[in-house]
């Protein structure tokens, strides 16, 4: 069978610093010689949002969607634009 997603209006905006729930060290970047593991803005840490499925990492340009129950999750821009369109009258 095939199914169509029900039309539900969601809130979404492009990620900007301050929307994350926290940061986690990017293990591939090594140790930062300037901040000695305490800096959150040097690129050695990845921002994330805590979702029902666990931590989801955010990249620049991702959309942060607020679902029908107030849950938040990131969405890549290409997927967002294929899935969502502006709601009439909003």
Summarize the structure.
The chain is mainly β and 90 residues long. It has one helix at residues 77-83, and strands at residues 11-14, 22-25, 45-51, 54-57, 63-66, 72-75. Helices cover 8% and strands 30% of the residues.
What is the element layout, followed by pairings?
Blueprint: E1 11-14, E2 22-25, E3 45-51, E4 54-57, E5 63-66, E6 72-75, H1 77-83
Antiparallel strand pairs: 1-5, 2-3, 3-4, 5-6
Could you name the ranges where pLDDT drops below 50 across 5 or more consecutive residues? none
**Average pLDDT, to the nearest integer?**
83
SSE topology string: EEEEEEH
Content of β-strand: 25-35%
Number of domains: 1
Shape: elongated
Tally of DSSP β-strands: 6
Structural class by secondary-structure content: mainly beta
Largest sheet: 3 strands, antiparallel
End-to-end C-alpha gap: 33 Å
Helix percentage range = under 10%
Number of DSSP helical runs: 1
Strand order of the largest sheet: 1-5-6
Rg from Cα = 16 Å
Structural summary, described in words:
- The chain is mostly beta strands and 90 residues long.
- It has one domain (11-83).
- It contains 1 helix and 6 strands; from the N terminus they run E-E-E-E-E-E-H.
- The strands form 2 sheets. The protein has a 3-stranded antiparallel β-sheet with strand order 1-5-6. It has a 3-stranded antiparallel β-sheet with strand order 2-3-4, with no helix packed on it.
- The radius of gyration is 16 Å and the shape is elongated.
- The model has no long low-confidence stretch (mean pLDDT 83).
């Amino acid at each position: 069978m095939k199914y169509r997603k029900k039309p539900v209006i969601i809130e979404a905006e492009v990620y900007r610093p301050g929307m994350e729930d926290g940061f986690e060290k990017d293990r591939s970047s090594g140790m930062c010689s300037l901040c000695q593991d305490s800096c959150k803005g040097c690129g050695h840490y990845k921002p994330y949002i805590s979702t029902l499925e666990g931590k989801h990492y955010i990249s620049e340009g991702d959309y942060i969607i607020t679902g029908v129950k107030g849950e938040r999750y990131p969405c890549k821009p290409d997927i967002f634009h294929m899935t969502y369109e502006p709601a009439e009258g909003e």
